[in-house]
Amino acid sequence: MLPVAKFKHRAAHVAASASAVILLMAGLAACTSSSSGAGAVSAGSPITVGADLPLSGTFAFFGGYQKWGYERAVSQVNARGGITIDGKKHKVKLVILDDASNTDTAASNVQTLISHDGAIAILGSCTPPMVNSDAVIAERTSVPMVTGCDPIASFEAAGPWKWVWDIFFYDPDLAELPFQTLQAYRSATNKKIAILYSNDPDGDEVGGKLWPKDAKANGYQVVASVSFPDSATDFGAAVEQAKSSGAQIVLVDCDTPQAISIRQQMASDNYTPKVLDMEKGSEPFQFSTALKALASGVMVGGYWSPTLPYPGAAALATAYEKETGNTYSQHIADSYTAAQVLLQAIARAGSTSNTAINKAIGETNGEYVVGRVNFASSPLSHASPLNVVELQWQNGKTVEVWPRDTEQAPLLFPVPSS
Amino acid sequence: MYLPTATATEQALLQGFLLGGLYALTALGLSLVLGVLRIINLAHGEFLILGAFLGYYWLQRTGVDPLLGLVVVAPVVAGVGFVVQRWALSPLVRHGDEPALLTTFSLSIIGQNLFIILFTADSRLINRSYGFRALRIGAVSVPEIYLISFAAALVIFGAVHLLMQHSAFGRQVRASAEDPVAAAVVGVRVRRVHALTFALAAGCAAIGGVLAGIAFSFDATTGTSYLLTGFAVVVLGGLGSVAGTLGGGIVLGVVESVGAAVFGDGYLDFIGLMVFLVILALRPQGIFGWARR
Amino acid sequence: MTNTPAPTTSAVEHGTSSAASRLSRALAAGRARPWLPLLAAGAVVVIVYPFLASTYLLQIGFQILLYVAIGEAWNLIAGYGGMVSLGSAAFIGTGAYTLAELTGHGFPLVAAVVAGGAIAAVFAAAISPAMFRLRGVYFSVATLALAEALLLLISTISTFGGTTGLLLRSAVPSYLGLYWWGLGCAALSTAIVVWLLRSRLSLALRAIRDDQDVAQEMGVHAFRTKLVAFVLASFIMGAAGALQSLNTAYVEPSGSFSLQWTIDIVTVVIIGGMATRVGPWIGAVFTVVLVQVLASYPDIHDAITGVILILVIRFAPRGIWGTAVTTSARIRARGARGE
Description:
The complex is a heterotrimer.
Chain A: H1 3-34, E1 47-53, H2 60-79, E2 83-85, E3 88-90, E4 92-98, H3 103-115, E5 119-123, H4 128-140, E6 145-147, H5 152-158, E7 164-168, H6 171-185, E8 192-198, H7 201-217, E9 221-228, H8 236-244, E10 249-254, H9 256-268, E11 275-280, H10 285-291, E12 299-302, H11 313-324, H12 331-349, H13 354-362, E13 365-368, E14 371-374, E15 383-385, E16 389-394, E17 397-402
Parallel strand pairs in A: 1-4, 1-5, 5-6, 6-7, 7-15, 8-9, 8-10, 10-11
Antiparallel strand pairs in A: 2-3, 12-16, 13-14, 16-17
Chain B: H1 6-37, H2 44-62, H3 66-89, H4 97-119, E1 134-137, E2 140-143, H5 144-166, H6 168-178, H7 180-185, H8 190-215, H9 223-237, H10 242-263, H11 268-282, H12 285-291
Antiparallel strand pairs in B: 1-2
Helix pairs in contact in B: 1-5, 1-8, 1-9, 1-10, 2-3, 2-4, 2-8, 2-9, 3-8, 5-6, 5-8, 6-8, 9-10, 9-11, 10-11
Chain C: H1 9-14, H2 19-32, H3 36-52, H4 55-80, H5 88-104, H6 109-131, H7 136-156, E1 166-167, H8 175-198, H9 200-210, H10 212-217, H11 222-248, E2 250-251, H12 253-256, H13 259-272, H14 279-294, H15 301-315, H16 319-338
Antiparallel strand pairs in C: 1-2
Helix pairs in contact in C: 4-8, 4-11, 4-13, 4-14, 5-6, 5-7, 5-11, 6-11, 8-11, 9-11, 13-14, 13-16
């Protein structure tokens, strides 16, 4: 090639690269100007609230209910015209991102919600690891966050929090339930307990620490205690250990697939204790769908039921079932409440300032579908504990068996053998 | 650690032995594909779970026992396998090992995603009474489903063995596995054999899946753990060997069961993986011989 | 660059190191590397970017840089070395946990990040003797099992927080700071890869990839070669994992050791172009942008990613960059013939 051609070739290269750089810079500049920052809101424009939810993956089961609860609260506020800020009404825009039950994605989602979507506040995901991921980012960016679906002991352990608030049950209250129930019904057992628990945060807390403590305090004896990872699928040895220990009371804390397997393998092993309490895992209706008659008699702690005497509780469940055609779950209630608390706090603050909203959240004191929510009066920091009740599977439905004054049906004792 | 009683040990041994039959059945398809097509099907677990889901819905829709329903479920899944091999894997034969591996990896991802969309993320259990009952043999009890699975495993393994050793198709399969080029020269339609073998493997996986779905709960993402179990079985039993897979399954079942009795259930999966890695590290002889083309 | 005088033939002939001949060599080099201006432009963009970018774009930029670093590391062992690892998560998670643990004990950031890489590298070295007995798909499966086993182990034992994980209590860098960290990591990764590819080691590595037995017969130390590549790659992955924990300020087994890392990295490199130097950069941008776009379709995000991967493997096995290079070469060849 002639030198002139080479020169032109190289010049063309330089020109191409230079124009590419210029274009990229222009693009960047355009991007930065159009991306909304948090805080500034022009007249009438919607204010954004971000939510990070597990819509797929291991916790997808919870995500669906939470989504409904969050969306309902927001649409009700919008139906009334929105929230008044500095004298003008602004509609609320709810942006939901799926974290696929992955903590890194959750963190990234909250970052995106705040920096890209301009969220002035965050609604949280479900289960301690996911909520922790959300909360850490919200805390670091000084953005107020309200969440349900995070047992308070785990929430406190990850704190102390300045910007994050939790509305859920307090683990010791839940752990005590089977003992209180048995006491109230004066059920006769040999007072021997076998504890089976998965080693996730709630399992460790309830199964590893609280139950042994409660057992001792109430005069029971723990004769077997077995823990397993939340990925375990076969429980033959654990069930055998419980059986051979002679325990008539079996307390379990694990996820749903495991709860199903454990109940099934107990039946295979011809082991039906008089009392079987399966926290967390036996609460969803899939437990009963899978096991059918075998689910009968299994107890589980719940923090909400539409029959409780709270304003709008029954109506919420009815609305859910009518709108979706599915059976309600207690998770619609804490998510609905969390969103309401947040939106009301923004309204009380009357501004998009994070400190004002945060302060207003802390001043929350009212009756919701889950009962009273009051952060200030609670001995727990930034958390408002819900009242817990003992439920039991009877004929394919969960019914409240304790406290007795609000019971829907008496306790079925002992657990019917298959 | 927990020192089990004599009864508990006997029970662990017996249950582990029988469970091993189920493990072997779930690994059979993997072994076939590995032995004949020389690829590792990372989507194997998804064929298993597809079988389980189809078995679940079969029971729900028709009320007929899913084991009888296998007559429909297994061919359907085999058909899916056939199509997958023909369209996604067959064209990659010339490109070496990685593209096929990564394609099956991608198929696995797609499969799990599709399952969530079609069937939701809920856990399922194929509810049959024999999934909850146990037979007492002296002092030990054995879940009926384990016995049924073991029997099924013997039947299926026997059938596959007969197919491979005493049928024209079997001869073609063995020829294609040993030397595809020579086989093609003598007129074996290697591509068709590969597709049919893959289909057979998928069908066997479906059978294993239905049985597993009766014995244990499953959901859209359970395939991965069955894939890893399958590997452990194939590695223990040696490759391409149908009988070896059965033996490998039983060994794994016993090791896991006894290990769980001693160390606790929690470590079942971990033990399985460790056994797998240790065997791979120490005794790869059978593998080497033909991991090299 | 265009003002240099033409070299005198005598200087070139005699090969004296006069300024003229040095310049002429530079010119020749420039001619032989037409991508140099593009590289310079790219470097400028990457350095100026953080000053123009919003917080959101900084976060995106960080993710891209992290994927570049991990992608290059994986490309080194899988693309150039033929060791297709499906266990990247093991090393990334190790780095993340190392940093979380060390900063909890007051270690300064730089030390913690380096330690993250170092521990991952040590882990890689420790398992190499066992892992390298396996070839091809068996190696891949073993790495998959290894990552899974590590996830189970970390979840089960309580030393590192079990399933709750560890929260980073010490101060973490701002998003701007994180971007610089990410850039440093990507630059280091690129430097390592480029250096390695210029060395004799890369020839040995490629020989092993193509046929290990023949390579060994030719005198290549297979184990040593693979070890160096694997350890360096693991170091980079560990350092990147450490940076990710600074980003999330929280480590937890199902996130840090997640299979999603492996899926993402395989996507990055395959789409960008395996065994190419530019591939991981393109793949990283593509993948991060894809994730953002698919964020509106959470329920089919994975399925779409899987389909794209399959299509690329089938129809563009060299990835975007690889296909672009071969296509442009073909065009130039046709053009040269047409001249």
